[in-house]
Amino acid sequence: MLLKPLGKTVHLGIDLGGSAIRAALVHGSVLLPKTFQRTDYKDDAATALNDVIVYYLDLAKRLDLVVEQIDIALAGNIEPTSRVIVSSPTIPSLRGRHLEDLVENFAGLTITAHNDANARTLGEWHVSESPKTDNFVAIFVGSGIGGGAVCGGKLFLGEHGAASEVGHIAVEYEGYPCPCGGRGCVEQYASGTAILRRANDLAGTSDRVSFETALSLLQALRVKDAIAVQTYREAAQWLSMSLASLINLYDPGIVVLGGGVMESTDGFFETVVEGTRGRLMPLAKQGARFTRASLGDTGGVLGAVLMSYT
Ligand SMILES: [Zn+2]
Fold it and tell me: Interhelix angle for 268-277 vs 226-250, to 10°?
């Protein structure tokens, strides 16, 4: 699948992240990407979203471009027939909202919506290094954990569009409860949120000052603070177990690792890859190439537009 310029027509790609909205016009490539942050975003995501749409429709008009479709990526799942957002872990105010109610009527524009981890996976596959592969998996570790899989040249969505929920691979039978309704999901052990919680649990038991933010924990890791080192080592182990399961299921040619925790933590990528390799079946161990995600913040935006072509 190749994304080609469409004359003067463009898509507007929007990624509804946990703390900000990222958007861009997509016209063969990503144009004029911008991140929007506002204090009322979580409580009133619909207003923030509609303001972003108005901003880009105006911008496109001034550039003599025509927005023909709006493609949205968001954490959670959208029921494909009713187009109701049935889960939204990072922005609870979106849960239960109908897509058509969420987005105001913009002169009959087509609106599509997609799971953000699937969108980012498709985006990374689209730009992945040569030689290309028809079998590809990605995992993104940020405040949550998401991922996806391309199988036989197609994004694997499952029967209900809810496949490849990597963050909800269970690693503990009686583990922490998870907002998904399950227990012991890897997201509760190795996401940025979980890593900070675990570090503060350890700090509490050793009667020391807590870590206020992920950044303060990262700074502690850089000076080899014992609690920070232990916390990240454990997180890498949980991730390695989950990623190995994913690879042993799908036998991909390329494995992409991305997300804020993966990108900002020195040595984390290498530790996770090493731990994963030790748990792979022989042929997968020989053949899988591990690479870092390359699209950064624009992965969800590009991916949402690509998803609309699938
Ligand atoms: Zn879960």
Answer: 50
